[in-house]
């Protein structure tokens, strides 16, 4: 029999209290730090108000090999490569967070918009620099992953990758369109001109994705695989992109596209690769909040997704650790936890607005059911777990000290002005057991294993590497619970 969630919560709180870690997370503090993390991932010329000061300018000549300016944007994780597929998803999720929970961001709204704009400025360059091309990445990942050097010292080849009519990439293009469309809603009132630019570019990029269909994994091969292969294909991104453009425009054209693309997949996961569940929840809003029966199928699919997540549901396909953490896959599991938790809070919000409930077999699901599971995941990440470990760097007293991240693990330019070459970072820095010299505040790492264990080893990238898309999905739930303290 499954241990009741309430008992698990009480037991974990007891363990955490014994470990001298508060069993009452400060969501506002965590929200501020989760956004600060993105400053540590910045590529390009850093703005004067940069707060993570151990970082400096980097990648200023990105795009030069194609005679275009592709400086800016974010490094995806602990490496020095700009992969646009996960970067665009991160941007979409940050934008969705501000759209859903903007009133709860408080003073962090300015930081949220800055984090989004740092990405969209770059994505706009990628979409408009050369007619007929969408640039989708900078930096040879195979060369980069053989090095351990600061982004400021990069001497690996900054190969430029793009998709086109001859080498399509519907997945990365449609995700880029989703990011720009979602961001256009964020900036609609505060910067209408920028918002229109985002939306117009989004529509053009989406048409490209639709007209020249194919997976970017097939077009670019080892430049994106196995790093960010599009394992789920591109139909989910076409639906996701159309759903966001429909949200941004309310156009019949995108409504018809959404309906024609259908929803033939019923996943139990949501991630940078598989967008079906996110699209279902996004579209369910029309059924629940607008009473539009044309969207009932998406409400039903969102209900079905939740039934696969909830621990007491007879149709659940989701494993939970003894400490209560959702466990989907061994590599960087927290990316799935944060993304699914976003859907839990958001669908709970939609359900609350209309007093919607549903059944998983004989189990009645209310908005509070989803909210409780979501809160459990958020609190676990912030330290309410058997180890009393906060998986957000710089939050709480006990957090990962040896994260798999080049800039964090190597001395800053101020501390070590001499260049550290490709191989120079491995000894003594990478292989050292000392804590990282630079604290990447707000970074959420890959997380514990299925036994709630966490070794805190720099070379254990599947558990100790942070990534933009882990944080990008976590901002929304933190904002949601910040408003309910």
UniProtKB/TrEMBL annotation:
Residues annotated as signal peptide: 1-23
InterPro entries referenced in this protein's UniProt entry, alphabetically: 6-hairpin_glycosidase_sf, 6hp_glycosidase-like_sf, Glyco_hydro_9, Glyco_hydro_9_His_AS
Protein name: Endoglucanase
Native source organism of the sequence: Cicer arietinum (Chickpea)
Top-level taxon: Eukaryota
Family affiliation: Belongs to the glycosyl hydrolase 9 (cellulase E) family.
Catalytic activity: Endohydrolysis of (1->4)-beta-D-glucosidic linkages in cellulose, lichenin and cereal beta-D-glucans
EC number, UniProt record: 3.2.1.4
Alphabetical keyword list: Carbohydrate metabolism, Cellulose degradation, Glycosidase, Hydrolase, Polysaccharide degradation, Signal
GO molecular function: cellulase activity
GO biological process: cellulose catabolic process
Catalytic residues (UniProt): 404
Residue stretches making up the Glycoside hydrolase family domain: 27-477
């Amino acid at each position: 029999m499954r241990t009741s969630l309430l008992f698990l919560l009480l037991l974990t709180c007891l363990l955490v209290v014994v470990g001298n870690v508060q069993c009452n997370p400060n969501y506002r503090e965590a929200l501020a730090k989760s956004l600060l993390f993105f400053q540590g991932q910045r590529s390009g010329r850093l703005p004067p108000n940069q707060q993570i000061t151990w970082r400096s300018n980097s990648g200023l000549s990105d795009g030069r090999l194609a005679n275009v300016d592709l400086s800016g944007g974010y490094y995806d994780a602990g490496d020095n490569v700009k992969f646009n597929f996960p970067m665009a998803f991160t941007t979409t999720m940050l934008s969705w967070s501000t759209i859903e929970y903007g009133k709860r961001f408080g003073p962090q709204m300015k930081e949220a918009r800055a984090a989004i704009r740092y990405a969209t400025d770059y994505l706009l360059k990628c979409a408009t620099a050369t007619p007929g091309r969408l640039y989708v990445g900078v930096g040879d990942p195979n060369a980069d992953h053989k090095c351990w050097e600061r982004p400021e010292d990069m001497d690996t080849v900054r190969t430029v990758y793009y998709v086109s009519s001859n080498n399509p990439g519907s997945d990365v293009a449609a995700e880029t369109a989703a990011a720009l469309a979602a961001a256009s809603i964020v900036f609609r009132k505060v910067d209408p001109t920028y918002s229109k630019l985002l939306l117009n570019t989004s529509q053009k990029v989406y048409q490209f994705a639709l007209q020249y269909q194919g997976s970017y994994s097939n077009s670019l091969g080892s430049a994106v695989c196995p790093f960010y292969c599009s394992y789920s294909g591109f139909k989910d991104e076409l639906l996701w992109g159309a759903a966001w453009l429909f949200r941004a425009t309310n156009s019949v054209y995108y409504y018809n596209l959404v309906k024609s693309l259908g929803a033939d997949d019923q996943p139990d996961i949501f991630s940078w690769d598989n967008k079906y569940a996110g699209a279902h929840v996004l579209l369910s809003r029309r059924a629940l909040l607008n009473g539009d029966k044309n969207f009932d199928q998406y409400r039903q699919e969102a209900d079905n997704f939740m039934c696969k997540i909830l621990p007491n549901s007879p149709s659940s396909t989701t494993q939970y650790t003894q400490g209560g953490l959702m466990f989907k896959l061994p590599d960087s599991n927290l990316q799935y936890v944060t993304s699914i938790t976003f859907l839990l809070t958001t669908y709970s919000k939609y359900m609350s607005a209309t007093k919607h409930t549903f059944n998983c077999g004989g189990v009645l699901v209310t908005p509070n059911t989803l909210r409780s599971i979501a809160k459990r995941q958020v609190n676990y990440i912030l330290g309410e777990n058997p180890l009393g470990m906060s998986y957000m760097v710089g939050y709480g007293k006990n957090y990962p000290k040896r994260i798999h991240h080049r800039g964090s693990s190597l001395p800053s330019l101020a501390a070590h002005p001499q260049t550290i070459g490709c191989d120079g970072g491995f000894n003594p820095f990478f292989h050292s057991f000392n804590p990282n010299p630079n604290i990447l505040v707000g970074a959420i790492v890959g997380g514990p294993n299925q036994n709630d264990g966490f070794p805190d080893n720099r070379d254990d990238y599947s558990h100790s590497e942070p990534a933009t898309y882990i944080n990008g999905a976590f901002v929304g739930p933190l904002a949601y619970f910040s408003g309910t303290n």
